[in-house]
C-alpha cells in the first residue's frame, strides 16, 4: 500500500520506517528542509535501536522524504498524521499543527483516502479533522478519518511498533477499517514474523498481536487512558515507597509481593524520581484538561501529577540529609536522559534535579551514555560533562544515580569507591542492593528502602559485596 506519514518526529519516523519494513511504499513528509536533507543524507536524528538499520534498508526505495504534502496525499491511500501536539500553558494539547495539516491534506484528496491520527490527541480531534477537511472543499464520501494510537516507548520504539501487545484502530466506517487492517496485516497475520530479515523478536512479544477495532472516539480515549494509567501506576508505587520509608519497609519487596498478582502485574511499578519524557507529563495534563471540558472533574490525575513532582523534592531532601549543605559540594551525577536507553532529555526529572542542585550551589560532574549532546545545549558550561561514570565520580562528595541505564547497574563498585572522596551513593532508581552496597563500603540511600551503611553489614554478606 502507498502510505504518507506527516511529521518526522519520533512517532512519524519510526512508523514510516516500520511501515516500509512491512512492505509498504512510504512517503515521509516534513516541512523542515534541514531535517529532510539530513534524512536524505543518511543521518538518523534520534537514538533508537534498529532505526538506523531500517532507514538504510529502505531509504530511497520504499521510504522517500518530501516537503510536498499535497502530492504525497495524492499518491497515497492512507495518510498518517504524526505531527507534534505540545502542551499549551493551561495544559491542553495544542492542536494547531494538526489543524494546519488537515487543511493542507484537503487540497490533495482526489479519490478515496483514509486520514489517520497517529499523534496523541484528545477525544473529538477526529471530528474536528473531518470538519476542517470538509470546510476546505473535500467531498464527504472522498475520505474517512480514523484513529490509530501508537504505544511505542522511546528506546524500544521499533520493536514496540513491530511486536505490539495490540493494535488499536478507531474507525467509524467499514471501508476505513479495511484499509487499516490491510496495512497491519503482515503483523496481525504473522507473515512479517516468518521473514528471515525481520527485526528480532523481543522476549515478551506475543505474536501475532490482536487487532482491536473501536470507534474513533474510543481509540482516542484508549491512548490517553493508557498513558494516564501507566503514570498512575508509577505515582502509586512512588507514594507506597514514601510510606515504606516512614516505617522502614522495603518497597522492592512490596513491589514483588504486589506485582506477582497477575491482575496488577509488576511492570511500571519501579519507584524512582518520578516519570518524565515527552509523553506522560503532557498526556496526563491533557487528559485532565479534556475530561474537565467534557464535564468530568478527574481529580485523581491531579494527585498523580502532585506525587510525581513531590518525588523530586523528596529525592532532594535525601541528598540534603546525606550531605547537609550543598553549597560548594562536588556531586557526581549519573544520568541526564528522562530514562535509560534514550538521548531524550525532554521533561527529564534527572535534568530538573541537576538544575536545582546547581541553584543550591553544588558543582556537578555528569555522565550519560547518550544524552550529553542534548544536555549540553541546556546546561552549557554550568556542568562538567565527563566520558565515563568513573571520571564523573573522581573526587566527588557523593554519587547520584538519576537515570536507569543498564550501564549504571553494572558499575565496577570498588573503582567507584576509590574515585569518590566520600563513599556515598544516592540512588534515585534503586539499581543496587542496599546490603551489597554497604558490604562494598558505601553509605547508600535509595527510594523506599532503609539507608545502608558499611558499619551495619549483616552476617551472611561478605565484604566483597557478594551474598554468602
Ligand atoms: C510512554 C509509554 O510507555 C508508551 O506506551 C507511549 O506510546 C509513549 O509514552 C507515548 O505516548 O508516545 P516513553 O515516554 O517513551 O513511553 O517512556 P516510558 O518507558 O513509558 O517511561 C516514562 C517515564 O516513566 C520515564 O521517566 C521512566 O523513567 C519512568 N518510569 C517508567 C518509572 O519511573 N517507573 C517505571 O516503572 C516505569
Q: How many strand elements?
A: 14
| C-alpha geometry | elongated
Helix content: 40-55%
What is the number of helical segments per DSSP (H or I, 4+ residues)? 19
The small-molecule ligands in this entry are: uridine-5'-diphosphate-glucuronic acid
Low-confidence stretches: 464-468
Strand order of the largest sheet: 3-2-1-4-5-6
What about the largest sheet? 6 strands, parallel
- For the record, give the distance between the C-alpha atoms at the N and C termini, rounded to a whole number: 60 Å
Structure classification: alpha/beta
- β-strand amount: 5-15%
Cα-based radius of gyration, to the nearest Å: 24 Å
